[in-house]
Sequence to fold (465 residues):
Amino acid sequence: MYKKILLLSLAILTVFACQRGGGYRDMAMITDAKRSLRGVKNALEEYWVDNATYPEEGADLEAVLKPYFLRVRYKENEDAAIHAASIQNARNQLDNITNLLANVKRQIVPRLDSSLQVKMLSHIEGVQNLISQYMLEIEAIEIPQVGIDAEDEFKAMLDILKEMNPELVISEIDDNLVRKGQEIIQSLDELKKRMAERLLDSVRVANATYKADAISRTFKVYEAYLTHQPLAQAEVVIPEREFENIETVLDTLAFDSLLIQVMEDIKGGINQYRSLEMRKDDMAGLLSGIQMIKRATAIMSKYEGTIRKNVHTSAIILEANVALHKMAEAIESYRRETGIYPSDDADLDSILHPRFIEITMGGDTIDRYEENLSYLDGFPSYLVVDPTSRFELRARVANEARTPIFSRVEIVSDWKKVVSAFAQGPTYRTIDPKVTYFLTATAKDSRRTLICERSPVREEKKAKK
Fold:
């Protein structure tokens, strides 16, 4: 009865005491405390799953819940991260070149005639084959026998595009666009003059004149842009659409042959203008291709000049670190199954080997044990510091320098980290460990906010009710 009254009192107290402190710092502390207490609650639920009961009243929570706050911590060579970054940087540089070449292949090659396409694709394929060889080097598979000169391949690509003189062609097209635009404006003026001379509907003529002026202003804006002149504020329209509107507004049956010819001249001029723009886009694409190839050339030059020099060494060391880490994981898996690590004099080879054998979905067996050992210069040494919580593997890389590496594994508890979020607590209460419990703790905010958690309602409790 006393315990029930105590729990009821705590619940009532929580309603009044669980309030938010002042300021963001206090709010953060309360949130941290709530998260930590929820972690304790989760551990209690795991305890119930394992034992079909919660801890007894007065139990030492740290001792009882310690297994649920343990985690495995791996510590390895500090320079492993440096080698990993070196490998990733090398891979990124080759990926950048691959992407640039893919853009050239997709955007530039189709703009060339068939004979130049064949030549360009051949040079692109040469560089791609070289990159494939370099990727094998990055994966520590083999050092390639390079028979391709990337600089020559890139130079040949640039020569193909430069021989087409895209800059000169663009300059000539701009001049033609300016002249064609002026011709269209003159034809529009002629159209307005002819419409005024003909006895046409005045409303329709006014409407058509307005649209013709809009087309003229648009081509003047185009000209200002092409000749790098200041752009005046003017509404730009789509010439084709506006000209179709002119044809719709006017009664072409009332046109004479001269007026019809003017209309044809305007329509043909607009089409020719668009054709010139498309040709200019092709040449601009070639210029873009030249820039992409120059960028790829610079990246490859840097890769072959500085990055590649140490990438294979880094790859071997990184693979050796990965292999040693996998062995450490295999030993940790053994501990989870048996409760302790193997002894110093244990047959480590027989323990490790089975854990490197994989069975594929098709039923095939893949043994990766020897592959992992090949990165090491001999079998690693094994030292047990504590059979329940710590061991260490040491080895040397199978490279010329016989680089020393290690993998240290230890079991650490996060309990102190969890309870560090509390000013006091956590406090554990229960009236029936088979059914329920009540957790309280005090946050570190300025008001020392009381926070709480309780067990979920279980079927046993419902049955009692």
Notes: Confidence is low (pLDDT under 50) at residues 17-21, 461-465. Strands lie at 70-76, 357-359, 365-367, 381-386, 390-396, 404-413, 422-429, 438-443, 450-454. The first strand starts at residue 70 and ends at 76.
